[in-house]
Inverse folding.
C-alpha cells in the first residue's frame, strides 16, 4: 500500500474512510492498495486521483509501517507528496480536511499511521 503525505501551507490533507470500508470512519492520508506489477509511486498517483480527484507529484519515502488488523496485515509506504493539479474533494472517501500536524492526534487514525503522525508533529 502507499499513502500520500500532502503538505500545503503548513497543513496536511487527510481523508475519512467510507462507512462500507474496513476501518470505516477512521481518518487516513490518501492512498490505497497497489495492483499487481504496479510501482508504489504509480499506485499512489492513481489512488489519490481516484480518492480525492487531485494529481500529485510523489516525493521521498518518509515512513513505512507494517500493522496487523483483524481483516488483514497492511504494509504502508508513506511518501511526501505535493499537489500538482486539482483541488482535493471527497470522491472515494466521506470527507477531506486540511489540518496542521499538531491537530492530527485529535483525529482517529488506524494504528499504522502512528509513527508518521508522531514524526510530522515532532517536525512542526
Amino acid at each position: 500500500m502507499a499513502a500520500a503525505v500532502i503538505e500545503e501551507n503548513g497543513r496536511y490533507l487527510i481523508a475519512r474512510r467510507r462507512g462500507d470500508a474496513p476501518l470505516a470512519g477512521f481518518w487516513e492520508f490518501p492512498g490505497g492498495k497497489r495492483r499487481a506489477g504496479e510501482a508504489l509511486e504509480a499506485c499512489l498517483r492513481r489512488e489519490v486521483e481516484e480518492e480525492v480527484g487531485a494529481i500529485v507529484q510523489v516525493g521521498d519515502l518518509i515512513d513505512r509501517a507494517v500493522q496487523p488488523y483483524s481483516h488483514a496485515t497492511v504494509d504502508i509506504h508513506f511518501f511526501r507528496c505535493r499537489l500538482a493539479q486539482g483541488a482535493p474533494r471527497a470522491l472515494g472517501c466521506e470527507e477531506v480536511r486540511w489540518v496542521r500536524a499538531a491537530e492530527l492526534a485529535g483525529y482517529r487514525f488506524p494504528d499504522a499511521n502512528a509513527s508518521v503522525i508522531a514524526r510530522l508533529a515532532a517536525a512542526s
